[in-house]
Amino acid sequence: MSDSLHELWLRGIAFNPAAPSDVLIRLVDLAAGEAGRLMCEGRDLPDAVIDAALRHPSMGIRARLAGNQLVDPARLARLATDPSGIVRARLAGGPRWPRPRWIRPLPDDILVTLLTAQDGGEDGMLTEHEITQELAFSRQIPLSFYRSMAGHEHPELRVRATWRWQSLTPAQRQALLDDSDPAVREAAQESWELDPEAVEAKLPSIGSHSKSFVLGTCALSPALVEQCFAEGTVHPLTWNPHTPADAVARLARHTEAKVREMVAARPDLGPDLVAELREDPDEDVRMRARLHPFPRTWAEYRAIQRVIGHGPDCVCPITEPDTEPSPDWIAACAASEQPELRRVAASWPGLPAMLVDALAQDDDEEVRILLACHQPLAPPRLLLDVFVTRQAHRPHLLTLPAFPRVGLTDLIDHPDPEVRALAAADHTLPAPPVDDPDESVRRAAAANPSLTPQNLEALLADPRTAEGAAANPSLPIPRMHALLDRCLNGATTPPDGNRRRETTPT
Question: Using the 8-state DSSP alphabet, how is residue 498 labeled?
């Protein structure tokens, strides 16, 4: 066998689901190169392998483990105090590109450690502020943690709670204003989002990228509202719950249809204006006005906002909703004649099984797509249908536990190679297509566990199939070690493929 196959064998073994700990630990060795780093970042790992990576002297190995979304995050707690700021930042930043649509939250103890750190690591590569900035944009902080910060025993976290002033209850705000810690009291007293005059004074010093956020979320003075109308920057006002009533009325009669559309379903819009907008010349405005009958709540408005206008190939992040409408309203959406409201129901977390079953048969394709991507109870056949028809959603669908892996033989001749590759991995397939013209299909076929060890030997020697064959769970464990001997140690592999006895590096 040619030494040019070594990298392919290493990558294959690194992702072989049947590889035991002693095999995978050998790949943590730096001699394994990129294959070992990819393994530490990209697959679930046994405890012994995690321990080896956590103790590894190479910052690169520990950093890759820090970004692993398949390992129990509790096992990564040690990395929150890693000597390297790069490792801490990788843990704080979460998975790199391509970023998953849904990101697993970190446990509270890791969040506390990262958010209250007094330094950025012994290597001085990053500051603690830079690391917490990574965490803030990582989507790894659950809403439950944000909501608990106002009452947390650590004063630094109570200070951080003041940064989300509008999400706090009046009682929490008052408690922070009266806090026993002077730094917490000062931070609370400096909160300005609900003070219209303070917002007006603060806005000129805020960067251009953040101005839209301020105008769309904070309390606004009459002067600032007038400035927005004069400058043509009224779009954020359409969804701001603090926009004054007279400004809302002006927005409802704005010359730009998109502005009228965004206002049409606001909970604070009067019935007379809603009646006008239901007869608006623009179809989208009429739809939004009719979509959301009275009574309305801001939670319902935001649930609609999360879905409307995104299209069937939207791959926006899947995040927790800030506010929750009532279960009765979600059920009413699921039964609505309006497909837009059924889409809202399909994307809502925790939808009851009965509603999932009904929406899985919906005539509207977007309803079915949203259901497949958002609901753990979505039927496997629906997941497969969306995979075949909508390429944009394939990376996300493949991460779902219910995604089907067998019964795919009817797809083996599909014109799309991604679909054929999925079918080629089905272990019920009579003859995996190891000669397919597409590389990904050959790799998947060579990794099919229905192949015997005898079949695999020829595939291991062929660069077109070597990586898949090395990833095949039917590959005997002694043969895995023998291949690693050749790749890592330059050891001679006997003709029978049995591994020469030696000490396994840890």
Answer: P
CB 25 within 8 A of CB 502: no
pLDDT one-digit tens code per residue, 162-206: 999 999 999 999 999 999 999 999 999 999 999 999 999 999 999
C-alpha span between 106 and 126 (Å, rounded): 21
Task: Render 133-151 in DSSP notation, one character per residue.
Answer: HHHHTTT-S-HHHHHHGGG
Of the candidates 226, 167, 229, 221, the one whose C-alpha atom is nearest the C-alpha of residue 199 is 221
Tokens 């790069």 map to which residue?
Answer: 86
Cβ atoms of 9 and 467 within 8 Å: the answer is yes
Closest CA to 75 of 101, 109, 99, 98: 109
What does the alpha-carbon distance between residue 392 and residue 398 come to, in Å, rounded to a whole number?
12
C-alpha–C-alpha distance, residues 24 and 38, integer Å: 12
How many CB atoms sit inside 10 A of residue 246's CB? 10
Residues 135 and 115 sit within 8 Å (Cβ to Cβ): yes
Is the separation of the CB atoms in 475 and 469 below 8 Å?
A: yes
Closest C-alpha among 372, 316, 383, 302 to residue 344: 302
Question: Whole-angstrom Cα distance, residue 373 to residue 346?
Answer: 9
Cβ atoms of 229 and 215 within 8 Å: the answer is no
Q: How far is CA 334 from the centre of its chain?
A: 25
Q: Which residue has the tokens 């950093």?
A: 63
Residues in the chain: 506
Among 426, 467, 468, which Cα is nearest to 450's?
426
Alpha carbon 380 to chain centroid, angstroms: 21
Six-digit token pair at 116? 């209250």
Q: How do residues 480-504 score in pLDDT, each as one tens digit? A: 999 999 999 864 443 334 443 333 3
Spatial contact of 324 and 349, defined as CB atoms under 8 Å apart = no
Query: DSSP label at 488?
Result: I
Nearest partner of 79 among 60, 54, 61, 46, judged by Cα: 54
Contact 221, 196 (CB under 8 A): yes
| Residue 407 φ/ψ region, left for φ over 0, alpha for ψ in the -120 to 50 degree band, beta for the rest | left
pTM above 0.85, yes or no: yes
Q: At what angle do helices 6-14 and 34-42 cross, to 10 degrees?
A: 20
Work out the number of other CB atoms within 10 angstroms of the CB of residue 61: 24
**pLDDT value at residue 492:** 40
> Would you give the distance in Å from CA 289 to the centre of its chain?
32
